Amino acid sequence: MKHATFPSLFSALALLVAPVLLAQSGPMPPPPLMQFVREEVKPGHGAAHAATESAWTRALVKGKATDHYIGMSSLTGPSEAWFLMGYANYADWEAKQHEVEQNPALKKEVEAISQKDGEHLTGVRTFLGTYRKDLSYGPPVEIGKMRYLRTRVFRVKPGQNKAFEEGVKVALAAYEKSQLPGSFAFYEVSAGMGSPSFVALRPLKSLKEIDALDAADKAVAEALGEEGRKTMQKVFSETVNDVENQIFAFNPKLSFPAPGLVASDPGFWTPKPEKKEPEK
Question: What per-residue string of b and e applies to 217-243 under the rule 16 or more CB within 10 Å gives b?
Answer without folding.
Answer: eeebeebbeeebeeebeebbeebbeee
